Predict the 3D structure of the following.
Amino acid sequence: MDVFTEKYEEFLLEFTKGKTMVLSSSKDNKVTSRMMSVVLIDGLFYFQTDKTFRKYDQLISNPQVALCADNIQIEGVCEEIGHPMDNDWFCTVYKDCFEGSFNRYSFLKNETVFVVKPTYVERWMYVDGEPFIEIFNIEKQEYELTEYEGI
């Protein structure tokens, strides 16, 4: 197994299967951000939203998005995949991680699920008390761990 694959698999295992994250999207040079309930399934990130929201219009117009939580930044391409109840595998994980949101919103007719296919992941971390930036360039299958020197 190459270094990129090994390190990226470790990262995905540490991520856990569900996390609240900030989703940033944009349209016409206007960027907005909001908290989302995100689940990780087979290396892809999923969330649901209402088709009447501004973020939906942004996601359809510009599929380039960013997700952020704690010390993790993820850039990726977003794609709509359909109503939550038409995706049993999504519902199983989403309900397990965010049961309140699942029960309240997943059955509504305007709800839809998006998948984010990550293209770039950056994570700040400490190694022996020293700050490092860990980068996963998914498109190029490249891994980098660089000490932050703040010069």
The helical segments are 3-15, 54-61, 88-97, 99-105. Residues 135 and 144 are 5 Å apart (CA to CA). The domain at 3-147 is CATH 2.30.110.10 (Pnp Oxidase; Chain A).
